[in-house]
Every structure is written in C-alpha cells, then in structure tokens.
Amino acid sequence: MFYGALLLTGANLVLRLAGMSFQVYLSGRVGAAGVGLLQLILSVRALAFTLGSAGARTCALYLSAEALGRRRSVRPALSGCIRYCLLFALPTAAGLWVLTPRIAGGWIGDAAGEAALRAFALFLPVSCLNGVMTGLFTAAGRLRTLVAVEFWEQGCAIAVTFTLLSRWAGGDVERACLSVALGSSLAGALSLAALWGLRREGSPQGRGERPPWRRVFGLALPVGLADDLRAGLNTVENLIIPRRLALFAGTVNAMADYGVLHGMVFPVLMFPTAILASLADLLVAEFSRCSQHRGQVRVRYLARQGLRVSWLFGICAGGAVFAAARPLGTLLYRSEAAGACLRLYAPLVPILYLDIVVDAMCKGLGQQSANARYNLLTNLLDVALLWLLLPRFGMGGYYFSFAASHLVNFALSLRRLGRSAGLRFSPGPAVRSALCGAAAALPVFLLRPQPGAAGALVPMGCYLLALGSLWLAFRVVGRKDALWLRGLLGAGGRPRPKISLR
Hints:
Elements: H1 2-53, H2 56-69, H3 75-108, H4 114-122, H5 124-140, H6 143-169, H7 173-197, H8 213-245, H9 254-269, H10 273-292, H11 296-323, H12 325-333, H13 336-345, H14 349-364, H15 368-393, H16 395-421, H17 427-441, H18 454-473, H19 479-491
Helix pairs in contact: 1-3, 1-4, 1-5, 1-6, 1-8, 1-9, 1-10, 2-3, 2-5, 2-8, 2-10, 3-4, 3-5, 3-8, 4-7, 5-7, 6-7, 8-9, 8-15, 9-13, 10-11, 10-14, 11-14, 11-17, 11-18, 12-13, 14-16, 15-16, 17-18
C-alpha cells in the first residue's frame, strides 16, 4: 500500500500542479468574474456527472476488490458496472443537452456558458465510463498503467485547451469556457480508449457468468442516490452563493468574489490533498479485502495509522499555507483578497484533509449508506445557513457555514468509523500536535515580507522547521515513527501478480 500510494501521490502532485498552474493562467486571461462563471459551469457538469455515474465507480472499485480478494474473475463485475452506468449516463446526457438554455440563462444567469454545457453533455457518457474503468484498474493494483493514462489525459486536456485559448478564444469568456470544456472532454475520451485497450486477455474464467445485478444495484444505487443528493445540494449551494451574496450591502461584484474563493483559493488550499486522495483510494480497496477475510486486526492498524498520518500531514499543510498565504495570493494571482482568504481558511485544513481519509475508510468497511446520510444532513445545513447568512454577513457568513457543516460531517463520520472498526479514540495526541502547530505559526508574524517566490518559501520553511522541533520536543513524533517509516521503505518492492481485467 505504501509504494502504491507513493506512486499515485507523485503522479497526483504533478497533475495537480499542472492543473493549478493552468488555473492561474486562465484567471489571468478571463479575470475573477470569468473564473467564477467557469466554476458555476463546472458545478453543473459535476452534478450531471454524478447523476450519470449513479455510484458506478464506487461499485466497480468495491466489487472488483471483493472478487480479487476471493480470487475470482472481475469480468462479470466489469460488464455489470458498464451496463449499469450507461443506463443512467445516456438519459442524463440527453437531459443536460435539452435543458442547457434554461440552465445557462436561468440558473447560472449568463448565457455565455451554454456552449460549454452542450460540450459536456455530448461527452458525458464517456466521462462516466472512464470513472468505471478507473475504479477497476485501482482495485486490480495496476497503478502504473493508471498513472500513465492520467498523465496522458491531463497533458492532452491542457494542450487542447491552451491551443484553443491562445489561437481562438482570446479574451472572450464564452469561448474560453468552451475551450476548457472541449479540452477536458476530448482528453477524457482518449483516456477511456487507452484504458479499454490496455486490458489484458485473461483466462476464460467468468466469461459465461451473468453480471451480479443484485450486488451492482444494491451497492451502486444507495451510493448513487446519496451522491446525487449531495451533488444536487452542492450545485444549489454554488448557484445561490453569487445571488445571495449580491444582496449583502458590502458586496461590489458577487461573481468576482465567488471566483476568488472557488477558483483561486480552494485549488491552492486543497492542492496537497493529492497525497491523501491516493491513500484514500487504496484504503477503500484494502479495507474491502480485509473485510472479506475478517482481518479486523489489520483494519484497526490501518485505521490508526491512516488517521494519525493524515492529521499530522494536515497540520503541516495547513500551517504552511497559513504562513505563506499573503505572498501566495500575490505571487499566483496578483490578488491580496486571495491571500487574505487563504490565511482565513488555512486553520480548517487538518479537519478537511482528515475527513477525506475517514470517508474512504467508512466506504471500505461498507458504511456507504451512513456516510450518505451524514453528507445529506450537512449539505442541507450548509444550504440553509448560506441562504440565511449571506445577505446579512456576506463572506463572513459563508465562512461560518463552511466551517460548521464540515465540522459536523467530520464528527459524525469519525464516530461511525470508530464503531465499525472497533476503535477507541484518545484526543490527547491530536490536541498536543495541533497546539504545537499553532505555536509554530506565531514566529511567522515577525518575518519581514519579501518579494517574489522567497516571500512564500521562507515563511513555509520557518514554520515547518519550528513545527518539527516542537513535535520532537513534546514527543508527538519519535523513534517509533522513524522505525515505522524505515520498515515501509525497506519492506516494499515485493512483486505482485498481474491481474487481468477481462
């Protein structure tokens, strides 16, 4: 798992760095308001993708990991997941195509997004099938193949979008949004073709078996319904933010404020989650295998280590962003508002990062329905708070809503994980490590601002150095952690059998 996570982490970091760099380039071409419009279009596209997938990716990951754990063929699971996915993806794509004028003009409030939405509708089934294949390759352990295809997809998307932006779109917001849609959609089609062609011809085992329809629908439908509700609420949330924010007396440009937060601040804030996203995907498959073999001891061990590593990593990442927030905002976007928002949201990073891993563990233990209920509850809370607080308190109301809903969701998910894995949590080490992180951030305020990249790197380095010293002094980390890491580095490299996806 360590070496698999290391491989995916390196790939995800490179891909996210490329994506964030492209986001910086795009913000320079269309401005904060244009970025805000693009984020609303992507939010609608995310809802359509969730409706079309209907839980197929999670189902494919879970069923294939289960089949491999029992040393059975994954061919029936592949066939069932693909047919199930198309059953929902094709009607969703048709509905998005038909409703595009109403969505662009009525929901988003800008007809400039109509062409981009039609492009996303045209390629929606391809994107959904791509998710199914990604889940199967992840469960089968074919991570190198998956990483290579992801690099190919991201490179093609950036190349196509950059070409269209530079030679055709210019500064036109409508053409810029269409360029992004065409670039990502064409790259997704190439990625699906590559994954489908890279399957290996396996034994005839499973060739005559029927797809496990009862398992497919039993697993995918609850996850799909929950994801649909959550994505719908997320889309409603994103659509009402500019409208309700415009009612606040202190708002000058609501779409620009929304673009700064969702198009500039959050990509930087969540950039380090490339590491945890890799770990989360592998934990889903590993916990699923362990549950088939009743490996409760290993489940508890992985849960403890995953929680501890994620929490410490979140403190490192959140503190580093907090220390360099204002220089990062100026360096990347030439925006003091982006820097101020980064510093405001950075203290929430440890909880946000840890919640990603907790959700993955719960999914691996078969707790998808419970997670779905928690997500639905917190999303409803978020929408209600935004509707009430944005006209009165502006972006301050958004911050309170964001923090409250995510804290509630994290508390409920952590409680469910403890019950499912038989874990007992001791808050002492977590509190001690967090207090060390807060103390390490204090010297940052004494540093003199510097221009350029040094203005961001120096505060980050000072914070991490102070944090490491405090953790060693208060025994947050110690010799056991060094031995554990040494064991990971020295115990890997055992070859795994190659598994056919046919």
